[in-house]
Amino acid sequence: MITPNTDFTFIQVKSDNPRTFTWQNGTVVEVVEMTAQRPIEKSSVSIGTKHESEVYEQAGSLDDLLLIAVDEALKQVFKAGGAKVIYGFLENKFHLGRKGIASRPEDFCVGLQRLLGSAAPVIEKLILENLHSKLGLKFKEKEGYGFSDYLKELREKYRC
After folding, report:
1. Which residue intervals of 95-140 are DSSP H helices?
2. Which of 77, 72, 76, 101 minimizes the C-alpha distance to 87?
3. Are 101 and 109 in contact (CB under 8 A)?
4. pLDDT tens digits, one per residue of 50-61
5. Domain 61-158's class?
6. Long-range interactions of 20-23: CB distance < 8 A, separation 24+
7. Of the candidates 51, 31, 50, 19, the residue with the CA atom closest to the CA atom of residue 117
8. pLDDT tens profile 73-101
């Protein structure tokens, strides 16, 4: 359970697995272990054996899939209440609403970094893995690539 202050910093954190994160003044200072303890909720997107571009067109825009992937990752790690706190923090401190994440991925990353510290890259990777999975792709880490770089590459691949 995450108890937020009015400015969306954390004042108390209780976890089923207290070894997962080390918290200090409302910021994750160390991620000891990050594992999925339950499966990610599946969206209504059907991948099947269709060609990648057909799957993409059927599922909606890349922005829509990105927002679904963000929701799933945040809820998987922080549950619904924690995801709401994160969205509130981004809105309050960065004027970045949930729907603006797709058009301002750099600000999203800065906000996650400010709120979650060293856990931010772990969350970003989980989001990217979810997004690639929805597109029927396997996520491959690339040296020197950041969250925005992966999104730019996907946009170029799908021309959107």
Report:
1. 105-116, 120-134
2. 101
3. no
4. 344 444 444 468
5. mainly alpha
6. 21/119
7. 31
8. 999 999 999 999 999 999 999 999 999 99
